[in-house]
Amino acid sequence: MRKFSTRLTTRLTSAGAVIALVACTGSGADAGAVGSAGSQSGEARSISAAEKQKGAEAHPQLLEEFGGAYTGSQVAYVVQVGQNIAVQSGLGNARSDFTVTLLNSPVNNAFAIPGGYVYLTRQLMALMNDEAEMAGVLGHEVGHVAARHSEKRQKAATRNSILGILGQIGSQVLLGDSAIGRIGQEVFGTGSQLLTLKYSRKQEYEADDLGIRYLASAGYDPQALSSMLYSLAAQSAIDVRAAGRDARSAPEWASTHPDPARRVSRAATNAGKLTRSGGVRNREQFLQKLDGILYGDDPKQGVIEGNSFLHPDLKLKFTIPSGFAMQNGARAVSITGSSGQGQFTTAAYNGHMASYIDAAFQSLAGEGKSISHGAIERTTVNGLPASYATARVDSENGQVDVTVFAYEFSKNSAYHFATIVPAGSASVFSSMYQSIARMSATEAAAIKPRKVDVVTVKSGDTISSLSSRMAYSDYQQDRFLVLNRLRVTDGLRAGQQVKIVTY
Predict the structure, then answer these.
(1) What domains, with CATH codes, occur in the chain?
(2) Closest CA to 180 of 402, 443, 498
(3) How far is the C-alpha of 118 from the C-alpha of 137, rounded, in Å?
(4) What is the pLDDT of residue 244?
(5) 3-state secondary structure string across 156-176
(6) What is the dihedral of CA 62, 27, 34, 204, to 10 degrees?
(7) In this predicted structure, what is the pLDDT of residue 37?
(8) Entry pTM
């Protein structure tokens, strides 16, 4: 969450749907032959003037939503590789037809929108182990655009929105597709770093096939997409465990890829069907370029450490209950779990807490709607003046309690939680409400950014010894293995380059 975030959500209604890699692990379709864009979806049309305009309008809003453009030394390299793979699609005749952006986001994600705009997060780049994997991921996303998947899905969509799709899915499960469901969409719509549109398995496989085709035509090893999908699935499993959950505890709506292994296998099989075998991986060059990239949260946007959120610039902190997960977005920190969901955010504050809470409820209700909440109660939390109110609302899935719990940090700044839980279970978040506090200057100064350090294996180094250098207190070896696409039984050789995460 950035320092000056006042809007709850941003709606981009005209650019077409964004396709995110995190949603691209569907399963169930049979492996088929790898075809071209022309053979599977009709000939890829050139980027139209209307698409260019819509993409240009959406681009600055997406940058704002995803932490802005990364400014590290890796940018030029990503642009070069991204444009090279994108031009294979036939959407543009020149590399300059594509705008490729490396995003300053701590989430494993990649996506593309019509108009020639392609995006990759620094976090997902860090998970990759060679240039071909990066090209494969970007090729998959461009494949969605080339096949016009967003157009096809939008015709059936109930809302034409780029942002907040995940929130819509999540809230509809908890609240039902009803008026109150729109409250959930607003609450959870700012979990935008998990930006996703649920595409059909057929479309996901088609995008995989196109990405593989683009890899081959660009001279890369077409197996690279399969190996990257393997790493992404493994990292997702660690993320779930680190959040104190297992895969079975995740809500059904959050599991868009029930069988990632099948997708990995399918991509490998279809890559093997190409007449062209082998190809470039460019591991050494990639690792050289990757070295030093920021990893995990940017302290300027706040950091997540276990169940705690820490913001050294705002000098605030809070802790979520065990079994819940957090997602740090540009405008809010989203909190999700099977027994409730919410967000931590801010809004304009003029010193009147009652009007602030009223405005928060109004934002949740949406334009032309209202929520009648109970009395506003006043309290003090760790020395901070605080106020809260709860509304009980009917939904298709039963009654729910919507709570706004706000804190005054100064005469012109306030922050609040907005939560939704099944009726009568508001106590689920009681500890979280009471945990918010100011950080001391010493605490704030102690928060350091993590980075990727590419090191050369020396004689005597082992997986265990290198894992111990990972800047984490949990799952050190698991994180090291996934980061380097290694198995615990793999041996290391002197001179081999591997990635570790350090401060």
Answers:
(1) 19-294 (no CATH), 299-445 (3.40.1000.10), 450-502 (3.10.350.10)
(2) 402
(3) 11
(4) 66
(5) CCCCCCCCCHHHHHHHHHHHC
(6) -20
(7) 42
(8) 0.80
